[in-house]
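Proteins fold reproducibly. Next comes a concrete instance:

***
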Amino acid sequence: MEEDRISQLSDEILLQILSFTDINTAVQTTILSTRWKNLCHSLSDLHFHLTRFAAHRHSPLDSRKAAEATSRRFSDFISHYLSRRAAAPIRTFLLSFDSRLVDTPAPFVDKCVLYALDHGVRSLHLRTNYYSHRLVWFASESLRELELTQLHHVAYLPPCFSIPHLKTLHLQGYGFVNNDDDDDDDEEEEDEDVDYHDVVAAAAAHDDDEAAAAAADSTTTEPFSGFPELEKLTLRRCVVSGVVLKAPSLRFLEIVDDAESWDFPLEMKMEEISAPSLTCFRYEGLSAFECSKVDLPNLEKVYFDVYNRFNVRGMDLKCVTMLHHFGNATSVALTLDTLKVIELDGCFIEQSPSPFPYMKRLKLIKGRWDISTVLQCVMDYLTAETLHRDSLTVEIPYGVDVVEHNLSIDGDDGGSDLLQLLQRLFE
């Protein structure tokens, strides 16, 4: 009989090996021998995925009834595992109820999160169908990374909560709502689904004073004030209208409006961004990002992807204003889609100063649309007045030409571009 050399390895090495396996596979190693019987219960990285559990157990998720049954077995599995787990610290805890057919069991999620916090979790990830967080218990001294993802709904966050040593925060599908005046009876309604269209309509209605006021009243002013050490922030599909972001330690900010995941896009408009340590800003959205006040003295890198291909009135002006807000950047990346938005009114940019006077590197990137040309006037607008023009590095994708006029009728470059040119000729 061959010697079992693997079992002779130290617990530390064996746990490292198990950390690369699925939690279901790790639990199955308990039947190998007495050496392995309790080893998996000392793992410090705990990742629980409903869909992976269903695949591992051959449990169906193709109907609501079957999915709910599988979800209950999934919850029982986690409860049983945690009840047998050693009192070891937790480094990473991920809990994902990633099925559209499953209503996330809020009390169960609360218990799991409390367990993780009690064991000093440093990285916490929650991905749920719908889960309304009661974050009064989030004042954790150990937490350094937090991801809260709403997969199929928009949910509210309370007006303020504090995680004093948090470094990284990723939020997806949230609105920042001031519910200080809510009655205690409203807590029973927190788990009800929030209508996404109602939230967006209130936040985006610029021409409706009453709707704008309602949005302002429902949005907390500074939802990130409780994170003094925050260095990286990602807001994905979040309602940010009226939000003020003051973050002294923030170095990376990413804002994404993934319009393809919703019926229509959010209005990405913030009141203020003040981050003296910020060096990198990234934005993706159907429309231009708007912010009334921007204070980013140490900004170095920016990335913009505005992929609106419709001639929306004023969109070019909003896009140009957006670029000027981030004019301190030295390294600029723009998608070709963004440049097409800027092209909407060539006369306007010809009369405007370049947005990036300190730019040393410009990189153009292919986006969602098939674009093969860039107008020379747009390139001049971006590069003509930079202080480093003689040493400026410009990267253009292969197959993309810089042209004086867009004359192509076929494809996404044509049609509207030709029409604009003809309108100029006959003015």
The CA atoms of residues 74 and 80 lie 10 Å apart.
